[in-house]
Each structure stands twice: as structure tokens, then as C-alpha cells.
Design a protein that fits this description.
This protein has 285 residues and is an alpha+beta fold. The chain has six helices and 14 strands. The protein is globular.
């Protein structure tokens, strides 16, 4: 589900319920703006080598949708993920704990940029999992790189906001952008974007998976305030492994848990981040 006004994606049209492809073989989240989409080629190569993909005669075609965020210029414009990085990511994939904070697609991520990147806060990657009982699980991984700030929706605490030019204190982005006296230009597109994946072990139809991706944006908007601005390319994917078969699946309950899971992953991504190139993490303030 692509909601942002400045997205950078690959093969997302295939995920429409009306498209014929019913499964994907990997999802890639990357930094590097458009250049970062090249990393998907490495993922495709590694999956083909392992015989993972759709079989067309003697050819195996892996389906690898991808989304990128804009982090160029945080350290340098010349460090960009490429095919070799996507290949390495496949090589190092595991079912163990996922690194969080300023790693992977979260390395150059920043948030709270209403007063410019010089007054921003370090973003990052966060994860969360919710156990709904009876074996039903939902998880999320999100790379947070928004113009807006971040609020913990469960406590209403401000987690990250643009730093006041004079005092250095964090401000509420929503209050700032809607205040009558606010006249500073919001950082131009496409220097932002929050991207992520939600996954469940439930058995879902393609339409149900699309619904899950849609409500993932509810979780994004719960934590990132404001979200989906003109310089954001916010994109969320949803996956269902199908390992749990439940003819009485409560889809509404799964949707609610998905939104909560995404919001928690976003908060974790900010709290786990480390400062870089003069952009401080909240843990350093």
C-alpha cells in the first residue's frame, strides 16, 4: 500500500488483488533513494541460484517487490546500496532477532525535519511482534525516515520532534506545522519516507493481505505525526506465511493488532537509533 506522495518502489503493481501473481519471494527495504532499488537485483540473483521463484519452463523468476527511502546527503551521496548488498542481505538472512536502530535501511534515516535536517532527530529501523493467542502472530519491521515527529500513541509521550533553533528542545511537529505563525518551508520532496513490512502466520487471501497493508498505515499515522506529507513516500507491505490455518480468523482483530504493531515498531526504531553525522539520537538528548 503506497500512500506517500514521493514513493520509490519496485513491482508494487503486482501486489494489487487484480494482478495474477499470488505470492512473492522476498521484500526489500533499502536506503539510497532510487539507487537503492538496485539492491533488489542482488536479491533476485541469490533467490534464482537457490531455485526460489515462479517456474517458467527452465527459468526461475523470483518476485521481489521493494521500497526505498531518501537518505542521501546525511553522510555522503556516494554510499548507495547495490546488487552486491542485496545479495549479501540474502546470504545473512535468518529467523533470529533482527538488528534495530541505525542499521540497514535505517542507517541514514532521520525524522522530525520541519525545521530542516540540521534540527532533525536520528531515525532508524524498529521491530515488534504481537501474540494474539491460539498460535496467531503478527509482526512488523519499519524504517522510519519521516518529515514528521514521532509520538508514542500508548502514552502520548513525544519521542522525537524538531529541535528548537534557540533552545535545542524538541517540539511537537503537529502543533508546529498547524500553528498560525509557522511559515518555514517543509523540507522538499523526496528527502523522507517511512517504509515497512507487516507479516502474519495466518492464511490470508491476496485481498486480505492488501487490507493488512492498508491498516499498517493506520499504525504509521498513530506514531508519525504528521504522516503522509508531500515529501513522504510512505509504503507498507503485508505478508502472510499461511502456516496457521483458521477458518474462523477474526480479521478485524488482526487489523487492530497490525496497526498497534507498526506504531510500536516505529517508536522502537527511534529509541534504538544512534546519532550520525551531527544528527543526534533521542538517547543522546
Amino acid at each position: 500500500d503506497v500512500r506517500g506522495s514521493a514513493p520509490g518502489t519496485r513491482e508494487t503493481d503486482l501486489l494489487n488483488p487484480t494482478a495474477t501473481v499470488s505470492e512473492v519471494h522476498a521484500i526489500l527495504l533499502s536506503g539510497g533513494s532510487t539507487f537503492g532499488l538496485n539492491a533488489a537485483a542482488g536479491v533476485v540473483q541469490r533467490l534464482e541460484e537457490r531455485g526460489i521463484g515462479i517456474e517458467f519452463g527452465e527459468t526461475t523468476i523470483p518476485i521481489v517487490p521493494a521500497a526505498i527511502l531518501f537518505d542521501l546527503g546525511v553522510v555522503t551521496n556516494k554510499v548507495r546500496p547495490g546488487a552486491e548488498d542485496g545479495y549479501a542481505a540474502c546470504e545473512n538472512a535468518s529467523d533470529g532477532p533482527v538488528a534495530e536502530g541505525s542499521v540497514g535501511a535505517g542507517t541514514g534515516a532521520t525524522v522530525a525535519k520541519l525545521l530542516g535536517r540540521e534540527n532533525a532527530i536520528k531515525g532508524g529501523i524498529g521491530t515488534e511482534r504481537i501474540d494474539l493467542g491460539d498460535g496467531l502472530l503478527v509482526g512488523a519491521i519499519v524504517a522510519v525516515n519521516a518529515i514528521g515527529g514521532v509520538v508514542d500513541p500508548e502514552t502520548a509521550d513525544l519521542i522525537a520532534g524538531p529541535r528548537d533553533v534557540d533552545t535545542g528542545m524538541m517540539q511537537d511537529s503537529m502543533q508546529l506545522i498547524t500553528s498560525p505563525g509557522f511559515g518555514k518551508e517543509v523540507e522538499p520532496a523526496p528527502a523522507n519516507t517511512t517504509i515497512g513490512v507487516v507479516a502474519t502466520n495466518a492464511t490470508l487471501t491476496k485481498a486480505q493481505a492488501n487490507k493488512l497493508a492498508s491498516v499498517a498505515h493506520d499504525g504509521l499515522a498513530m506514531a508519525v505525526r504528521p504522516a503522509h506529507l508531500m515529501g513522504d513516500g510512505d509504503t507498507m507491505f503485508a505478508l502472510a506465511t499461511g502456516t496457521l490455518v483458521d477458518d474462523e480468523l477474526n480479521m478485524s482483530r488482526l487489523c487492530a493488532a497490525t496497526a498497534l504493531c507498526v506504531s510500536r515498531a516505529i517508536v522502537r526504531g527511534i529509541r534504538k537509533a544512534e546519532g550520525i553525522a551531527g544528527v543526534p539520537a533521542v538517547s543522546e538528548l
